[in-house]
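User: If you would, consider this record:
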Amino acid sequence: MKNFHVALMISQGTPMMLMGDEYGHTRYGNNNSYGHDTCINNFQWGQLAERRYGHFRFFSEMIKFRQNHPILKRDRFLSKNDVTWHEDCWDNLESKFLAFTIHDHNSGGDIYLAFNAHDYSVDAVIPPAPQQKHWNRVVDTNLESPNDIAPEGVPLTGSGYRIAPFSSILLKASP
């Protein structure tokens, strides 16, 4: 769920969420549950309070991150100068790894994202940060709450990062 929320929050346009997404509520595949007068449409306050607070916290912090970074709220489509793709071999149909940098031409607050859908870890080579900046890890969905998201970022050391299976990372360039 956290990986999908990261993808949603960095995508262009208006993010669309359903009630209960913030704690992992399921409608069991029913995409038109509005006609059901059952628990499928009820907000489960107990689930939020008892066992899903970390999930709720992650969703809330990602929404704040999006709000605080105008680069994620563009009013035009990305051009080739706005994004750099980091893929070693685009012809590899078996690849389940995607990494890219969204460039902030105004303040240099670039954002690097990587998604690993493999069932094994991937050692990603992190591109150099913009001049006078360094990378801070904001999100690693493999980490347990509250370490999965650090709104101010944790300084990244080195030029690589081991991305766990079925997880994603988000790095932010900071002074």
Notes: The helical segments are 2-10, 45-50, 53-68. The chain has two domains: 2-70, 78-174. The CA atoms of residues 3 and 80 lie 25 Å apart. Residues 53-68 form the longest helix (16 residues).
